[in-house]
Design goal:
Shape: globular
Distance between the termini: 23 Å
Low-confidence stretches: 386-392
Number of helices: 16
């Protein structure tokens, strides 16, 4: 197909797919109390629905990708979307906690492989100098899920019940499946490395360093974002209903940051890898300083959204650069790395908010691990020196 200067329709279709999957991942946070009341479980038990989803991504995603790498990528995406639809339909009709847990695991298994394989497909739909933008555009679906999907899903759940929210997510999956079926071209079966060969790709120290960097740098995102509600309420002084629109404003920052990150990753990958994490660290410190003041806090939180998600395309592109021996598995492993970071950020945030330091310390604590990430990537890039391949 022709590869022009604009992103093709097929990349936008992958964005829609990422939006559906991202909504399924995060919407549970807005439905926890409803699910807990309806199923007569504690909110802590309901919170485990997030944990099992994340663990399905971290553990199941790479294993599933190892098996799927040998098949036509378009057919794989269709199969994964079908499994995603089934998982969310099961969630909608789950009559007890155990059934809902199982359905979340099924839905979670699809996310890592879909994002990983979808990112590879996105890069092959565009010219070389637009690969970062294509990956960024696909991941824009994840940011839009935070802006529209999560608040919208919570709103639907409050009015019609949480079951209907999952049915709507499944319906989004059906739309994504049909558009992939009719618009995304067949990718063809490729000669891929054996399972041992694919795993052997992780013998590359640069690939392992890229995954480690994702974990270290990204931990700061969920360290603050996951606990933005207590900071907004307890420190900035917002009423609980106001937190919804604060999240929407931050979500708009995520969308803008993702777009900027895609362009800068194409222009200079090395500079993006170093510059955006530093910008996120600065933004977290500014959030911490501005937190006691309502509107400065909102402005700082918006900037945090921009600076944090600008990291995503560069992180994904570095992994795909050094994982070309097994690109689907490498890209999926990076999705697992993002989710490990989400878990670590959540642990750090929980420890801080429950300590004597309180919510006001969360932004500062969230910045600590990313500082290690910047120092780490600086050592890696210095070792490689001018050998880093950047797109002009």
């Amino acid at each position: 197909m022709s590869k022009g200067s604009k992103l093709p329709l097929q990349v936008w279709i992958l964005t829609l797919s990422a939006f559906a999957i991202g909504t399924a991942e995060f919407v549970i946070a807005g439905l926890l109390t409803q699910i807990a009341d309806d199923l007569a479980i504690t909110e802590g038990q309901a919170g485990q629905l997030i944990t099992v989803y994340a663990m399905a991504i971290v553990i199941g995603g790479p294993i599933l990708t190892l098996w799927l790498a040998r098949f036509d990528k378009r057919n794989v995406l269709l199969g994964l979307m079908g499994l995603f639809i089934a998982g969310n339909v099961m969630s909608a009709f789950a009559g007890d906690y155990a059934a809902l847990l199982i359905s979340r695991i099924i839905a979670g298994l699809t996310q890592g492989p879909f994002y990983g394989i979808g990112a590879v497909v996105a890069t092959r739909l565009v010219s070389k100098d637009m690969e970062g933008r294509a990956v960024g555009q696909m991941f824009a679906g994840l940011t839009l899920a935070n802006v529209l999907g999560v608040p919208g899903g919570a709103w639907v759940g409050n009015i019609f019940g949480w079951n209907i929210t999952f049915l709507i997510v499944a319906a989004l999956g059906v739309i994504a499946l049909l558009t992939i079926m009719f618009a995304v071209p067949r990718q063809g079966r490729e000669a891929v490395a054996s399972i041992r060969g694919q795993i052997g790709a992780f013998g590359d120290r640069n690939l392992l360093a890229s995954l480690a960097f994702t974990v270290l740098a990204w931990t700061g995102f969920m360290g603050f974002y996951g606990y933005i509600a207590p900071v907004a309420e307890q420190v900035a002084g917002f009423a609980r209903p106001d937190v919804t629109w604060v999240l929407v404003i931050v979500g708009l920052g995520l969308v803008l940051g993702n777009a900027l990150g895609g362009r800068t990753a194409d222009a200079n990958l090395r500079l993006s890898l170093i510059g955006w994490p530093i910008a996120m660290i600065i933004a977290l410190v500014v959030v911490g300083i501005a937190a006691p003041f309502k509107w400065p806090f909102v402005a700082a939180a918006f900037l945090f959204g921009v600076m944090s998600f600008a990291n995503v395309p560069a992180m994904q592109m570095r992994v795909m650069t050094f994982g070309r021996q097994a690109p689907e598995l490498a890209a999926t492993a990076n999705i697992s790395a993002f989710n490990i970071a989400n878990a670590l950020g959540g642990i750090i945030g929980a420890a801080v908010v429950d300590s004597t330091l309180g919510a006001q310390a969360i932004p500062f604590a969230a910045a600590l691990v990313p500082i290690l990430g910047v120092l780490f990537i600086l050592t890696q890039e210095r070792k490689r020196g001018s050998g880093m391949q950047c797109h002009a």
